[in-house]
Design goal:
Rubrerythrin, domain 2, 3-stranded antiparallel sheet, single chain, alpha+beta, 87 residues, binds zinc ion
Length: 87
């Protein structure tokens, strides 16, 4: 099951815009580190990203996005909306 990751602690490069982005704790408050298949959003270009098994980020394909549970897609769209309006 994918969980949403907020952008907080560690820093990694976004594969889409090459910005340094902070990643790391789960938005469910568990504080757990990301694992393969977890999803994040770039705080610079707002691309939806997923962690691979090397714990690095790649862009989530549209195909994979559409396979996410509906509530996860809604949550992601809400998150991106909030992030866009926070800038
Ligand atoms: Zn980016």
């Amino acid at each position: 099951m994918s969980k949403l990751i907020s952008l907080d602690i560690d820093r990694k490069f976004c594969p889409c815009c090459n910005s340094f982005i902070a990643v790391n704790t789960a938005t469910d408050g568990s504080g757990s580190a990301p694992s393969a298949g977890d999803i994040s959003v770039c705080s610079v270009c707002y691309e939806i990203l997923e962690f691979n098994d090397q714990n690095s980020l790649r862009r989530l394909s549209n195909e994979k996005f559409m396979k996410l549970p509906e509530q996860t897609r809604i949550d992601l769209n809400n998150l991106i909306f909030i992030m866009r309006n926070a800038h």
